[in-house]
Amino acid sequence: MNDIIVLTLNCGSSSVKYQLYNWNKRTIMCKGIVERIIIGGTFIKHEVPGKTTHKKKKECADHKEAIQLVIETIINGKEPVINDLSKVKACGHRVVHGGDKFVKSTRISQKVLETFEELKDLAPLHNPPNITGIKASMELMPDILHIAVMDTAFLQTLPRKAYTYAVPYEWYEKYKVRRYGFHGTSHLYVSRRAAVLLKKAKDEVNLITCHIGNGVSFTAIKKGVAVDHSMGFTPLEGLVMGTRSGDIDPAIISYISEKEGFTASRIVSILNRKSGILGITGKFTDRRDVTEAMKKGDDKAKLAFNIETYRIKKYIGAYMAVLGNVDAIVFTAGAGEMSYELREAALDGLECFGIKINKEINRKAVSRNHEFTISSDSSKVKVFVIPTDEETVFTEDVVAILKGEYTDPQTYNYSFEKPSYINRMREEAYRKERGLNEPNH
Fold it and tell me: What is the largest CA-CA distance in the chain?
């Protein structure tokens, strides 16, 4: 049987992340990113397991040129991995907002694309580049199957009391104003891995999953199913983020409009692009920069850190109340995986809730390639650091649809739910990070 090779694409406003995966061999053939599309200084970073990472500068005026660069690099670059595009069986695309139209990954048709267009105003920072990337890919690769993997799908299980806003109900009926939630593939992946670490079935675990990157979202998961989520109608609601404000009093919008003469749309743009960590510090979005500035006595950096960790603590407390019994808290994504300072400060003082971390282990638990248990032995609630892997979810959904086996995010059995699952590319990277000679399982 011919190998099932799947390409996955995650198109941002000025970037394209990609991965090529051989399903039969369960191996990543290559992965990478094209950055600074449209804005100038475009380059591709291409990584093949076991070989030197390749970086090349080439201007890309739009996403079509960027995806063309990805294809050329995979086939004809310094480290080519296939010699013919026909070897790729399907392409999976991340779509941030599916509204309530899509509850699972789906084949992309013209009708599906038209629906995405109708929904693009719900996620103005994300859906337009997602759609642009899909259209470019379908033009460049017309003979393969294209599949949309919905960021909102895993969160479609939220009950009405969690997703309905206390606004005129006709806003929901007419305009579908409700909580949708985002980063669903990330929360799905780490929740399934947490069940493995807990040695429980996925439908037996109660979790709080904390995705803390430039965007931040928390999910309350009861018996393996999402029951509440911090992001809302758009990805703006919730916790403090790199450039997003998270929760605010909505009256601020009209107040600032009157004071500054800004339109509502301009203020919302500021709340999305110039608020959060950036808004407080005036110059930082990366938590590493914030931590470094704190050490040098930067008062606003310290304030930003304190505001973010305080908000994290509040959400964890709220979701513990929602869930009642909590098996584990999971940290994931950039800062969640790499900032031990953030985790330590956010969980400090929660011992009364049965949460106690081992500070020494926590400070060593800094890797994008390894899963850690950072709670102390006496902690009633386990605390994990689990690197997210959205690309694997994309790939498995695509393969399942190709085979006619896909059901939905809640019931489908993914390979990474098995105790024997190993991501060999990450395992090798972790061994190199720590100078280990033998596999660390």
Answer: 67
**Residue type for 51, please?**
K
Q: What is the mean pLDDT of residues 338-358?
A: 96
For residue 114, pLDDT over 60 is answered with: yes
Q: What is the pLDDT of residues 30-72, one digit of tens each?
A: 989 898 887 788 999 998 887 878 888 989 888 888 989 999 9
pLDDT (0 to 100) of residue 437:
67
d(CA 45, CA 35): 8
For the record, the structure tokens of 344 come out as 């330590």
Residues identified as active-site: 151
Domains and CATH numbers, the chain: 5-150 (3.30.420.40), 200-385 (3.30.420.40)
In this predicted structure, the answer to whether residue 130 has a pLDDT above a threshold of 90 is no
Give residue-wise pLDDT tens across range 308-324: 999 999 999 999 999 99
What pLDDT score was predicted for residue 441?
45
pLDDT digits (tens, 9 = 90+) for 152-178: 889 999 999 999 999 999 999 998 899
